Amino acid sequence: MITTPPSSVATMPPDALPHIVVVGGGISGLSAAYELGRSTHSAAPPVAVTLIEREPRLGGKIVTEHSGPFLIEGGPDSFMAQKPWAAELARELGLGDELMVASPMRRTTWVLVRGRPQPLPEGMLLIVPTRIAPFAFSPLISPLGKLRMVLDLVVPARRDDGDETLADFIRRRLGTEALDRLAEPILSGIHSAECERQSIMATFPRFRDLEKRYGSLIRGMLAARRNAPREPSAHQSPFMTLRNGMSALVERLEQRLTARIFTGSTVVTLAHRPAAARPYHLCLDDGTALDADAVILATPSFVAADLTAPGFPELAAALRAIRYVSTATVSFVYRRADTGNLLDGYGLVIPRGEQRQINACTLSSVKFRHRAPDEFLLLRCFVGGSRRPELPAREDDELVALARTEIREIFGVSAEPVLSRVYRWPNGNPQYDVGHLGHIEALERLCPEGLFLAGAAYRGVGVPDCIKQGREAARKALMVVSAAHAVAGSSL
Ligand SMILES: Cc1cc2nc3c(=O)[nH]c(=O)nc-3n(C[C@H](O)[C@H](O)[C@H](O)COP(=O)(O)OP(=O)(O)OC[C@H]3O[C@@H](n4cnc5c(N)ncnc54)[C@H](O)[C@@H]3O)c2cc1C
After folding, report:
1. Which ligand 1 atom is the nearest neighbour of the CA of 455?
2. What proportion of the chain, given as a percentage, has pLDDT over 70?
3. What is the pTM of this model?
């Protein structure tokens, strides 16, 4: 399918303009195409932009479903407020009034310990205690485990910038119990990662920065909270979303793009011909051929590997080395009357050692109340990843049955849900293994001039990081075509 929105760029003969092709219409590719369109208002030369997306719809992992009064997110359901790029883009697109923060009064996170949900004590900033009394009385960590965590105040700090696994870092600073009960389910859970392989520098560099500056995570978190009013405190929420769902961002971007958009079209080959007027040649699965001055690959890295393999085998091998795991989300709506005293808060994280079939459960309509009427509860379970890689491939009814069993055993809710939805993400979660950032730097150096990478596989998996990467790739591509344009102009 080819859509050509009316725009000044689209009506110009594309041959007269530098042409940039963006492959992949997830949030990274959409942000890149949007930023390229903005060049018509800047000093850069106008460019013709083409965005190609394999699926019939744009958005990639971002999928919002409106079912009656319920708002269900199949992929991301919110973004970190501390990373400003998503909220900034939403405001730029006129969606500022749609931005919402998660309910600050009900921000408790629960952790499953020996089969029973226990609340994270008040004053915990992610995994770091910043208030003595609630931490001291919490049953979440044993007295010995707490003592070990407090040793963070005196354990010598590591001050170099070398990478290490999240597990090594937490064991070093806070001890093994804090790793098993807190860091593994919370910090590795966010990334569907394995803490014994996960890079601290690529996923939580801030912890290493605090260690370096303050000699201790606890002192660092306390200082950060004192110094920065934006630091999430007990009364603020670190999460934001859009009232009409994350897809509102995708829809608004689509409306604002000045690009030619091809949906339901797969890029099957990418050739580099440095001597040609336009050095990149792309073929789509329907036989369409496109020549481009620059290309932004905003696909998963294994797709970028397939496309670059014939011309750049070393780059392709480096791209293929980025591991992925598969996940699925299973959402349920229950009648409140059927859920008894089910816990209140944002949700439950489950340590690997608990050996459950689900990895975590978000209480979606507690986190964001507008997602279901008050007499209902919307929750969603996370399945798969490295813990249970076989599960996401199971049939929908099997996943629903499995998640319901878990909800019954963990929360004691055995009622029939009024709605259930499964979203599967095969090879959907890139893994930032130790050494990731060095690997990405090396891989970027292997890219030929005019070829750029953006997306979850590289410099941040969160929606804000993907937006930032897409926009940065666009600015770099514009610089390359501007320089070529200037040379061509001066030789006339
Ligand atoms: C279950 C789940 C929950 C998540 N929750 C959160 C959250 O709450 N907050 C948060 O910030 N992040 C979250 N994330 C992460 C975040 O959603 C993703 O990292 C981000 O959306 C990825 O965007 P992207 O554009 O880089 O990639 P994608 O969304 O994967 O887009 C890549 C696009 O490329 C297309 N494509 C592939 N091959 C080709 C080809 N040959 N030709 C043309 N097109 C092609 C694909 O169809 C796809 O649309 C979650 C992810 C998952 C899976």
Report:
1. 26
2. 92
3. 0.94
